[in-house]
Amino acid sequence: MSLKIRSAVSGDAAIVLQFIRDLAVYEKLGHAAVASVADIDRALFCDSPKVFALIAEWEGKPCGLALYFFNFSTFLGKHGVYLEDLFVPEKDRGKGIGKALLVRLAQIAKENDCGRLEWSVLDWNAPSIAFYKSLGAAAMDEWTIYRLTGDALSRLAGEK
Predict the structure, then answer these.
(1) Residue boundaries of the structural domains of the chain
(2) Of all helices (H) and strands (E), which one includes residue 53?
(3) Residues 87 and 74: beta-carbon distance below 8 Å
(4) Would you say 85 and 26 are in contact if contact means Cβ atoms under 8 Å apart?
(5) What are the residue numbers of the active site?
(6) Which of 126, 124, 119 is nearest to 140 (CA)?
């Protein structure tokens, strides 16, 4: 076994975007993945990035992605790590790659004195839910995510 987890570096934007697109297709949301390589490059590799990525490599080839950012819990008075995307292609599953990415994220959280590591999962994604539960993750069923996008976001911002 030759598994390496590394931080994404300048030049990895196309790899990151391909994993994002593959995840979107898996989640039946391919139409929603409209980011470009330039968008990803600008977000991850600017002077002061707000988002970060880990790339898993199996025998030197990219085989997984974890894209994350830091948030803040007012209740804990500490930052946290929010995992935006975790993806391992089907052909690479079962090798411990997803767990290795989550282990590295947990280490990053601890290294930064974060109080939590959290993420969302689609309610129909039973394999992922079972995997997360096997790691000791707990569902936050009493919380509902709300989102503003497009025209609704523009209206609230007073732009329309």
Answers:
(1) 3-156
(2) strand 52-58
(3) no
(4) no
(5) 132
(6) 119
Residue whose tokens read 């391992």: 88
SS3 127: helix
Give the list of residues 6+ apart from residue 131 with CB closer than 8 angstroms, or none: 98, 99
CB 80 within 8 A of CB 72: yes
86 close to 121: Cβ distance less than 8 angstroms: no
Residue 90: its pLDDT value, please?
Answer: 95
pTM over 0.85: yes
Q: In the prediction, which pLDDT does 160 show?
A: 73
- Helix-helix angle 37-44:13-26, to 10 degrees: 110
CATH class, domain 3-156, is alpha beta
d(CA 40, CA 17) in angstroms, rounded, equals 7
Which amino acid is present at 157?
A
pLDDT under 50: residue ranges of the chain: none
